[in-house]
Amino acid sequence: MSDSQPSTQRPATISDVAREAGTGKTSVSRYLNGETHVLSADLRQRIESAIARLNYRPNQMARGLKRGRNRLLGMLAADLTNPYTVEVLQGVEAACHALGYMPLICHAANEVEMERRFLQLLTTYRVEGLIVNALGAEEDVLRPLRGGGIPAVLVDRTVEGFEADLIGLDNTDAIETALAHLIARGFDAIHFVVQPFEHVSSRRLREAAFRAALGGRGLPVPPTVVLDLNEPAAAAAALADLDARIDDATRRGVRAALFAANAPVALAIARHLRARFGAAWQEKAALLSIDDPEWAELIGITTIRQPTYEIGYKAVEFVHERIDGAAGDVRVALLPGELIARASTAS
After folding, report:
1. 71-169+309-335: which CATH architecture?
2. What secondary structure letter does DSSP report for 68?
3. Measured between alpha carbons, how far is residue 178 from residues 182, 183, 184 in Å?
4. Under CATH, to which class is 171-305+338-345 assigned?
5. Whole-number Å distance between alpha carbons of 331 and 68
6. CA torsion, points 172, 178, 180, 181, in degrees to nearest 10?
7. DSSP 61
8. In CATH terms, is domain 14-58 a member of 1.20.120.80?
9. Which pTM does this prediction carry?
10. Which are the contacts of 43, defined by CB distance < 8 A and separation ≥ 6?
């Protein structure tokens, strides 16, 4: 066994470990790959001691590429400022840890071009699978994944023309649950507020489900309020429209109910109503939101809580099964939400 140490100018290599342990690189490689049953107890101990003395850290990327596996999972997130995405990510990270993957997270910041660039970048990293929470990705952007044999799972949103496993909220059921709650409390002036939904399938589904459910009950279906949080002038106009609807309901002696399609919309509405009416704003308008961020409890907003952790965890399980060779038809898992009733919808 050698007492020599590798130069402090470079990290220890597998050759250094072999030299320190008095064996060959093949034996060290077998130890690192978990093939310890073919090594004697004495040799295993010498290799383990050499690794500790030299502070050797295997290059997992290089080892993975040599075996055709690198254990990298890519995740493209449309908006990491949205509590929904952060909560889904917690499930993704937990599942990656349990299944031995390293997540590589890319934040598109609600920019379609950034989304396109990150998808191209992830393919160059040779990720084994990809989880996509897309803003406006089109089929042509995702096509290289299929051509490169990279399994993909879509979270929350479909991509037209691109067939892949999907996991997300059962939006139709969530809308039905929310409307049943509002109607049971006597609300009949119910207004749906959503961010621009042309390119986001989950927003389209919620808007269509709201109109169908309200109309199916014989109730008036007001025009949808589109609240563009990225365009201040458009957002101000949408909030002014909401003000007019609230005032009209007040003149008729009823309280308007505002149904926010997600947490960012709910937060913008709550801030606006508080600025206009003060701390007692809930006496002027009811508010219900899909998504249940932590701040909703603090100000008493009724929500539909999404199973975000389960969505993220299941997405990794889906892509892991595809990586391992699972074939078959595209799978769609729509999970139920949970109504959390709070003061904002009290009658």
Report:
1. 3-Layer(aba) Sandwich (3.40)
2. T
3. 6, 9, 10
4. alpha beta
5. 26
6. 170
7. H
8. no
9. 0.78
10. 21, 23, 27
